[in-house]
Amino acid sequence: MNLGLMLGEAARKYKNKIAISMGEQRLSFVELDEASNKFANVLIGFGLKKGDRVAMLLPKRPEFVPVYF
Q1: Residue 24: left if φ>0, alpha if ψ -120 to 50, beta else—which one?
Q2: CA–CA separation, 50 vs 41, rounded Å?
Q3: How sure is the predictor about 46, in pLDDT bands with cuts at 50, 70 and 90?
Q4: Is the pLDDT of residue 1 over 70?
Q5: Rounded distance, CA 3 to CA 27, Å?
Q6: What is the mean pLDDT of residues 18-42?
Q7: In this structure, is the dihedral angle defined by the CA atoms of residues 17, 31, 56 and 6, taken in order, positive or negative?
Q8: pTM of the entire structure?
Q9: Side-chain-side CA neighbours of residue 39 (13 Å)
């Protein structure tokens, strides 16, 4: 099982429970899964395919987590 599948499973199981909390920002498991899928679709739109490698350079912020998944 890969991380994306694990996140989808957690989103189905835990739905609106908080997955990420940093300061005032909160993301539920469902919101995290949706953000991750949205970012993946942006990458696909740029022409990336399964197995392509992508470098990430992000500060320590909640936005890092959906990108990681």
Answers
A1: alpha
A2: 12
A3: very high
A4: no
A5: 17
A6: 91
A7: positive
A8: 0.81
A9: 16
19 and 10 Cβ atoms separated by less than 8 Å: yes
Are 27 and 19 spatial neighbours (Cβ–Cβ below 8 Å)?
Answer: yes
Token couple for 66 = 């959906």
Rounded Cα–Cα distance for residues 33 and 65 (Å): 10
What confidence score (pLDDT) does residue 28 get?
93
The C-alpha atoms of residue 5 and residue 48 are separated, in whole angstroms, by 19
* 55's tokens: 């470098």
CA distance 62 to 2: 21
pLDDT-above-70 percentage for the chain? 99
